[in-house]
């Protein structure tokens, strides 16, 4: 689409709202006529009247999206909130796949042509903001936030400055968090999830009330271990740590959390550490009624911390499902480190391990190596060290792939020998065996891990990747979707979306493959390794210009990368890897 010339264009300051339907291509593939009919109906009943009521002008609709101009940022934000609430109410009442929107809002000088269409950098920014919004959510630029912050009854999350493609400057981004009408089925910027039939629980980050703010990692470590223990009970549905930690530092009602995560129970608490003394308070809350089931405090010294965690776990289990035998509780305990300083270092490393970022990987490795000096037989530290090396291989950060492969497998096997029934450690060994292409042994390890802990979102994720590597894309998609259900707000969720995109590539559904990989990259723009598979996907989807653009961006992040390096890093079958290599070649990447 060409822009209007300066002679025919008018300029004015305006608030631009850009929206589109989440997963539209998938919905069309499932039910083309039904999806089109529902979208037309929603435009007639909800979208167009909502825009008019807030004095907006519907500029145009394009497929599954629409563009709106407002003279007032406040009216634009109010309109966006009401649209999301109305869409959520419609989804709640719908018996079929609901339609959900992503919305981006920007305030800027724009150009308007004779036909009323709008153009310019301000419109492009709104479109980029829309792409990074959560399903059912709203993202706005810093300019909009400054105009509305004291004029609307909503809470916003500052997501910092972000770089967007073809935008020549960083944009400050805010997400609308709270204030949406709960009676219409909207909770924050997320959808309501149905509660599981079996007992379901989320363990929230414990509050650090020590005088030393540096003890934050210690409180996080306690929660990490309680989640790991609870996850071992097959009769429970336990939300993964990476999703519950998205609530850290936020004031959110227990009922709201229960609705967002689809759980019946919430465990919350605090940790106070002073020298050797430690006090942990914990309370179990019914997320439906808000009633407290029990509250207790546990006192001891730091050396007793694991016993205190086990007591809390036993209290939770006993309150929710008293029939679980003491022997099962005993089996749920993870092998503890001999050295508490090593434990501290590992807890400090964990956020860096999961960031999937090259610099964070180096920091995590440094901390874990220090822990292993203090306690060489600490299984979790060995396992995390192996996974950090595995990341370096998979994401083309390694300077010596053969050595890293050998050491990854050695450390993963050493950890499993020390803790052969720990599901996390078995998952890491399964991942290591996948990297070394020992697929049968990898499958055995992942099956054992999931038998021990069916709540492990990460084990389901790794199983999804293994099925991709074994040319089984349909099962891979099922496992990635299950991982997303266990940890819906996980910062690692983009990795599942990436896996689904690769599964569609394997199945030669290239348009869907591009859609899912684009989604993953929009959520985590720093994950430039995605471009290694997105570029060839564009080639096979027929968009060579986008493919070449991907390669240009890839070479900025990896100046020396070649097709042979990518072949060495990825573990797809020869046939699939051949297609990726062909696409990379046609997109312009050297051999």
UniProtKB/TrEMBL annotation:
Pfam families (UniProt xref): Guanylate_cyc (PF00211)
Highest taxon of source: Bacteria
TPR repeats: 423-456, 457-490
InterPro entries named among the record's database cross-references: A/G_cyclase (IPR001054), Adenylyl/Guanylyl_Cyclase_3/4 (IPR050697), Nucleotide_cyclase (IPR029787), TPR-like_helical_dom_sf (IPR011990), TPR_rpt (IPR019734)
UniProt-listed GO biological process terms: cAMP biosynthetic process; intracellular signal transduction
Domain Guanylate cyclase: 15-130
Record keyword Plastid present: no
EC identifiers of the protein: 4.6.1.1
Matching CDD domains: CHD
Keyword terms, alphabetized: Lyase, TPR repeat
Record's keyword annotation contains Cell inner membrane: no
Any GO MF annotation of the entry: adenylate cyclase activity
PANTHER family assigned: ADENYLATE CYCLASE, TERMINAL-DIFFERENTIATION SPECIFIC-RELATED, PH-SENSITIVE ADENYLATE CYCLASE RV1264
The protein, known as: Adenylate cyclase
